[in-house]
Amino acid sequence: MDIKLQNVREEDAEFLYRFMNDKDILDALDEIPTQFSDWVDAISAWNCDPDEEDYIIFDENTPIGWLGINGLLSEDKVACIKMIGLFPQYQNKGIGTYALKQTLEMLRSRGFTAAALYTNQSNRRAQSCYMKCGFKITEKFAGKMANGNPAERYKMELVF
Length: 160
Ligand SMILES: CC(C)(COP(=O)(O)OP(=O)(O)OC[C@H]1O[C@@H](n2cnc3c(N)ncnc32)[C@H](O)[C@@H]1OP(=O)(O)O)[C@@H](O)C(=O)NCCC(=O)NCCS
Hints:
Elements: E1 3-7, H1 13-19, H2 23-29, H3 36-47, E2 53-59, E3 62-70, E4 78-86, H4 95-109, E5 114-120, H5 124-132, E6 136-144, E7 150-159
Parallel strand pairs: 4-5
Antiparallel strand pairs: 1-2, 2-3, 3-4, 5-7, 6-7
The structure holds coenzyme A (COA).
Residues 25, 28-29, 84-86, 91-97, 119, 123-126, 128-129 line the site of coenzyme A.
């Protein structure tokens, strides 16, 4: 495997549309189905938002996932991992940990002091990945997800 992160481009709308309508991904994220045009619009919005950066995760030339960060303009220099996901056949092979570690190193080298993220308490695989990257649980709270499901959530943080 040859894993690389590449800044999202207009032509990645088709991949994000496919990825974010995959049943396993919708279930894992408690998200709702979306249209192709939603991703065209999202990419244009991200690309003119200096607070946010989005990357497509590739295995060689095959797009396999999405990693998004925001909080890049935050005064306290705490970045937020807003999204990380891989197609099911690429999960549980260390790729999420690798991609996240690369991103955290990039953030650290750009002067960020910490990173934060949110996850469902039931998502044990995601937590295991985040803990391997050094994140610790700092808050527990009850939330409501995009699909209306209630969820017990964790905030996790890593101080560089
Ligand atoms: C979350 C995600 C990005 C993690 O990436 P990944 O490449 O699958 O994770 P890794 O393989 O690096 O690490 C997963 C770890 O979880 C462990 N794990 C898997 N299932 C587990 C479970 N049910 N309970 C506890 N640990 C589990 C694995 O053993 C592995 O640890 P190890 O390497 O020490 O054996 C990926 O699984 C994914 O895309 N999931 C669907 C979308 C999602 O849930 N995104 C996160 C939303 S907050």
